[in-house]
Amino acid sequence: MKKYTFSLFFLLPCLLLAWQNVQLQVINYPEFNELSADSLNKQISRTDSLLQINFLTGNLFKQNPGDSTLAVYYDSLNFHYFMPTDYSFNYWADSLYFQILASNIEADSVVVLENLVVHADSMQVGIFGIYSPDYMVLNQVNSNVKFDYDVFEVAKKQAQKLQDCNIIIMFSNLGKYIDSDIVQNLPVDGVISFDYREQRDELFRNGRTYFYSVNGNQIGQLTLVYKNGKISKKWREIDF
User: Fold this and answer.
1) Distance between CA atoms of 24 and 221, rounded to whole angstroms?
2) Domain spans of the chain, in order of start
3) 10 partner at 20 to 30 Å CA-CA among 53, 64, 66, 95?
């Protein structure tokens, strides 16, 4: 199945002046039940001064929901993309409104984005996501799912495809030290990791890439501000 690249344009004339900056909001390992999901949805901030893109990552549920009606419930949440590491990928990911972002996974029955480009005024943000090979071992993955185990080559190809972007962000559940090796010689500006670390706003040894991670009971916010041809990055975490 062909992999998909998605460009997200927000250039309507009435919004050009408002959306000059981008904020990526990340909810990692929420392990939802119905009450917690509703509470989280109410706490996601909204603002007209920047463009917010919301991601779900990690294990989404405490137990296998196994019910399409529950999928419809979660479809009402204010999220755009997700990178599940649990059974949700197999059972009803194709029924959700928000899309899977996974650069090294293909599936015949589910649309999977290999990367996406967010456009906001003069700034383009390229985003891709890498899954750990452990995913195929720890989950009963459907036979139609194809996995590319060469994560170094996948990341290299994605960085090349996104090279025209002002900034490139990689999502990963590989772990901090492997992430550091992967991006060592790549034009990747930030890694948002599923691998929660005590030090989580850290500059990698390549002198370019920052490592971010967020705990399971927090919202991670990476705000990208474009001014005078330069982009600044700010990371913070919010309890929910």
Assistant:
1) 6
2) 4-239
3) 95
Instruction: Judge whether 195 and 173 are in contact, CB under 8 Å.
Output: yes
User: CA 13 to CA 70: how far, in whole Å?
Assistant: 38
Are 96 and 72 in contact by the 8 Å Cβ rule? The answer is no
Name which of 29, 71, 16, 85 is nearest 219 in CA terms: 29
* Low-confidence spans in the chain with pLDDT less than 50: 1-2, 9-18
Q: Which residues contact 171 (CB under 8 A, 6 or more apart)?
A: 55, 57, 83, 101, 127, 128, 129, 130, 191, 192, 193, 194
Give the SS3 label for residue 47: coil
How many Å apart are CA 10 and CA 217, to the nearest integer? 30
Per-residue pLDDT at 169: 96
Tokens found for residue 135: 């995913």
> pLDDT value at position 36?
59
Task: Domain 4-239: give its CATH superfamily.
Answer: Metallo-dependent phosphatases (3.60.21.10)
What is the predicted pLDDT for the residue at 167? 94
pLDDT for position 10: 37
* pTM of the full structure: 0.84
Angle at 139 between CA 133 and CA 143, to 5 degrees: 85
Rounded (10°) angle between helices 68-75 and 34-43: 10
Q: From the CB of residue 49, how many other CB atoms can be counted at a distance below 10 Å?
A: 9
Helices (H) and strands (E) in the chain, counts: 6, 15
